[in-house]
Amino acid sequence: MSRNAVREPESTRLTITWSKEADLALRSYLGAQGMKKGDISKFIEEAVRWRIFHQTVQEARGAFADVPPDELQKMIDEAVDDVRAKCYRERFERP
Question: Which residues, 6+ apart, have CB-to-CB distance to 1 below 8 Å?
Fold first, then answer.
C-alpha cells in the first residue's frame, strides 16, 4: 500500500442508550439534511471526534494559560520548524 493510500478503519459495533427526544431530534435533523438511517453512525463518529478535539484544545489552552503570547508563538514556530526540517530530511534520504 502506498504511503498516501487511505485505508478504511475497522468498525466496532456499539450499543448506546439515550433519550427518545435526542433520538428523534437526530433522526429529524438527518432526514432534513437528506441523510439516511445509516448516516447516524457517521454523524455520531464525527461528533465524538470533534468533542475529543475540543477537549484536547481546552486542555492545551489550560496548560499554556500562563505563558506570554510572544513566548508561546516562539515555541510553536520552533516546533513547526523542527517538524518541517525532519520531514524535509526524510524526503531526501529515501532511496
Answer: 7
* CA distances in angstroms from 64 to 37, 71, 77, 81, listed in the order given: 42, 10, 15, 20
| pLDDT, tens digit (0-9, with 9 covering 90-100), for 45-72 | 999 999 999 999 999 999 999 999 999 9
Question: CB–CB of 43/26 below 8 Å?
Answer: yes
To which H or E segment does residue 88 belong? helix 69-93
The pTM assigned to this predicted structure is: 0.65
* Contact by Cβ (8 Å): 42, 34: no
3-state secondary structure of 28: helix
